[in-house]
Input
Amino acid sequence: MFQFSAPPPLGLYVHVPWCVRKCPYCDFNSHEMKGDIPEVAYVDALLADLEQDLPAVWGRPVSSVFIGGGTPSLLSPEALERLFSGLRARLRLLPEAEITLEANPGTVEAGRFSEFRAVGINRLSIGVQSFHDDLLQCLGRIHGRREAIRAAEAAHAAGFDNFNLDLMFGLPGQSLDQGAEDIATAIALEPTHVSYYQLTLEPNTAFHHRPPTLPHEEAIEAIQQLGQTRLAAAGYAQYEVSAYARAGRQCRHNLNYWHFGDYLGIGAGAHGKLTQAAEGRIERLWKRRHPRDYLEAGDKVDGRSVLGRSDAAFEFMLNALRLVEGFDTELFTRHTGLALNVVTPGLLQAERRGLIVWDRERVCPTAQGRNFLNDLIQLFLDDDE
Output
């Protein structure tokens, strides 16, 4: 079905499902802690999970690791050290691999940053969201402005020369001045990367069932444009819909997703996507979602699906068209195993509507295409199998 000369690059995602308190906007697989985290049992389960996936990736190098959640920085440095010892014993983790840990700006966790760095973490992603106490309280965050600033300062002090700050806009009651102050504070803390994205009310969240009053659309757009302008002026280039980075500091793990690369997913509810090049097959698999079920089950896999031609083509476009610079056409063929003519009808429609520019070598969304991304992606949804 698919023809590959080699499988795409491989990353590893590790999911830690616990947090101190579930935020009302969060639709991730996260669960409030009921007592202490069962660290020993969970690390054992993660390594057993990885063992099940190993035959599908044996010998392939791993170029990035992302530990997300939940709040994975709740894990002790000892638990992370045991996890990484197990990972390195089982995988070809490249010496230059980007290894990211998501962290909450709590003061206790920030004090662990030096220990996290010592076990091999070389990039942090700190979930700030805002630097205004009233907005943070509305979001259900457990930290305030002071803790957020201290976390970034602690990252510098611990020797992290690469870290991300998550920042949201369009928050309940947020003013343009507050949005400007959030951006200014984030820039002053000198992260290498900023994730800047709009609050959305996702299904199955507390905010979806009890929606807060959000700023009107024109106000949200003004906050976003101001933030983008000031990030650009400070040297943070936008390279994806919600990602801004200093030169050479783009998130390599996320770029692998957006390039339709492969990734192992271990942990409760984690998803993976793996290419079997010799067999001409792309498979998705997902793990048991609830932490209790995940810990107790011998088989951690909850389900599998094999991608068809139209699935692979659409998923590639869904991801790659988020990138400001678009993608090389050769990358499409290399990572999907398909010829570009599979998506040519959609490309021609998109070009006629001014949503992309393209030639034999590159496809790039226009400013209009980025503004109407859902409309652009929709053009590739109904390709024939």
Remarks:
- The two ends are 11 Å apart (CA to CA).
